Each structure stands twice: as structure tokens, then as C-alpha cells.
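Minutes, project huddle
Topic: does the predicted pose make sense with pyridoxal-5'-phosphate bound?
PN asked that the exact inputs be recorded in the minutes so nobody has to dig through chat later. Recorded below.
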Amino acid sequence: MNFEAHRDFAVKLDNEDPLRSFRDRFIIPKHNGKEQVYFLGNSLGLQPKTTRTEIDKVLGQWSDYGVEAFFLGDDPWINYHDHLQKPLAKIVGANPAEITVMNQLTVNLHLMMVSFYRPAGKRNKIICEAKAFPSDQYMFESHVRHHGLDPDQTIIEIQPKEGEQYISLDDILETIEQNKDELALVLWGGVNYYTGQLFDMQAIATAAKKAGAMVGFDLAHAAGNVNLELHNWNADFACWCNYKYLNGGPGAAGAAFIHERYHQDNSLQRFAGWWGYNKSTRFKMEKGFVPIASAEGWQLSTPSPLLYACLRASLDIFEEAGWEKIQLKKDKLNSWLWFLLDELNRQQAGQVLECITPRQEKGCQVSLLMLEKGRAVFDTLTAKGIITDWREPNVIRLAPVPLYNSFEDVWDFYTMIRDILARP
Ligand SMILES: Cc1ncc(COP(=O)(O)O)c(C=O)c1O
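Predicted holo structure (C-alpha cells), as shared on screen:
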């Protein structure tokens, strides 16, 4: 599409947007009485207006029935998980039985490591991205030590090439091939939290399986953001949080994908709890763990219907808007942002910012390395109610999202930076 750099064009794009009414489904925080331009859906997605209604329903069930709310009423809690599985399955490209909503991201990664990181002899290496989110690094180290191994000898981190910001797919595939006889697991982030780089998960999964290794993905920054085909890509497992692009609220229940080929595989190790026990006989409270023959078999504890309610409110909106339409708007909003960023660099005497997000491998997030006035730009944006975040030494991250950001939001961001940079 040929974009034009003026506000009327942004207004035209908003008028043509089939999803424009969905913004009104969310509570947009205010700044000096005016709605913020909120670009931190990559950190904590905004609150749907129906979240409160869904929570109130659960509170009402609790008041009406006490513990019997698990089984009584028109929407018993015992089946609440079913409301979440299908919409999430569509979003991550899975069968509903391959999805479970439980715990939180780091906890779920640990649980998946129990099942899928089984070092045996020299086949004990883990390949991951350098500068993975710190929680993932701590998780890797602790598992490796738990198996009596040395993290320095076991974890292979792939870095960007000297002088480059992002990691090349060729380097990932080559490293997998070079270590194929010693590789136990490839665990990769779908979208890097710092650079916003989207990885070719299909290629990584194919190479890992060919090398005889397990493969999993941390989708914290990918789920609800980009198209995923976890089942068809043949991933063994994946985990994500639901509080970023999926608007499930602070500390939302996390989720995991476990490929269906493992659902009845008793040779796989797992940590077990009563909520993962075969549903039809769970309440007989018998000795000996019999797992549910689906991803739910990895559940441990009684889930919170309150947290589930928050996520349900948001997933209902995703269902109504339709994933394909959400993806189309994401691409257009993103292209509009990149067009305006190019415009900024064109207008200034020299380059003023560098996108460290690769142009061809990205989701909603763009990370800008500010070559001039970085902190001043960020502070002024914040003071004016344009909410982005700052990562040392001089990176501004922002993620315009399709459900509640507008083309005019992106225009406001652009004009604000343009004006700050134009000042002497
Ligand atoms: C890539 C990634 N992994 C792991 C985490 C940790 O998530 P949690 O605090 O929900 O365990 C985050 C949090 O933002 C993240 O971005």
C-alpha cells in the first residue's frame, strides 16, 4: 500500500479499518483527562471492559454456591477451562487438546523441562538464544545443575554476528547441525523481548527434530501477536504468558502447548498433581497417578476461576474480531509505523534512529536504537501521554496492537518524535 505522511491519511486508514470499533471494548488509561496512546501491549495488555463483568460472574457463583460452584449453576467452574482452550488453540495453531491454561510462564517452562529435557550421556546440550529473557536463563541453569551438569559446558547460546543486532537463521541452523550428536533440546523465544526479532520457528523446529532433539518455544512475545502453527511445525512444547498481547491481566494464568503425540506417552517424565488426574475418577482420590490424556494432564493445582475469567473476557474479543482480521490489521498498522520511521530518518539531516527489529522478521513490536536525544525523546513522549518503554542503553520499545491502537495513535507518536528532534 502507498502511504502518505499526513494526519488525514491516518484518519482515512482508521475509517477504513474493519476492527476500529474494538478499541471501545478496552479501558484506555487517561493522561491529563485524555486517552493515552498506549503502546505497551507487549508488556501488559489493556483491560477489556468485560473483564469486570466476567470476574463479577465468578464472585456471584461463589456467593451463590460456595464450593459447589465447581459443579452447580449454568457455568460450573469444573468446565471453565473449556472456554479458554479453543480460542487459544486458534491463536497458536494447535488442537484444543494440546492447550492447557495453568500456573505462570516460568513455572510452566520448568514443568516442560522436566518432561522434555532428558539429558542422556553425551546428548545433554541445550541450544538457546543469547540474551534470552533472564527468567529463561535462570531456568536453564537450574535444570542443568539439577541434572548434575555444568551450565558452561551444556548451554550453547547463539549470539548475533559481531556488529549485528539480530541472530541469523543460518547461524541457528548451522549450530543445530554442528551439535546434532550431543543435542538434547532447542528452546527458543518466538519473538525476542529486546529486539522484537521474530524467528522462523518452523525452520528451527524442523532442524531440531532432524537432529534428534526436542524443541520448545517461549512464546511470551509471540502469542496473540504473530501467526503460529505449533502443531504443524511439529514443536514438542511451547509456553507463554497471557498478560501481554492476550490481555489476561497482571499475573494472568499462563498456558502451555504439548503436542498430542505425548498425551498418552507414559514413558515421558512429568511432575504430577491432582488437577492433571483423569477427570472421571479424580474425586475417588485413589493412589497412583492416571493423567488426563491431553495437555491438561500436566496441570497440578486447582486453577483460579478468577484468573480464568480475566482471560476469557479477552479471548471472547479475539474470537469476535477473528484472528485473520487481527493479523491483517497488525500488518497494516506495522507497515504504517515503519513508513513513518523511514520518513523521520529521511527528513533529518542524518539518521536519527535505527530499528534494531529486523524489517522482514517482526511482529507488533519495534525497538528503536536512538542515535540522538534518546532519553529526551522518551521522557517527552511519556510526559505527553504516549506510553512506550525504555531499555538501557538507549532503546525505545513500542508495540502498536491491532485491537486497541489506531493509525492516528501511530501518527501522534511520529509527530511527537519529529518535533522533539527538530528542536535545536
Ligand atoms: C520471554 C519471557 N520469558 C519469561 C518471562 C517471565 O514470565 P513470568 O513472570 O510470567 O514467569 C517473560 C516476562 O515478561 C518473558 O518476556
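Observations noted during the meeting:
- The longest strand covers residues 183-189.
- The chain has 13 helices and 17 strands.
No decisions taken; revisit at the next huddle.
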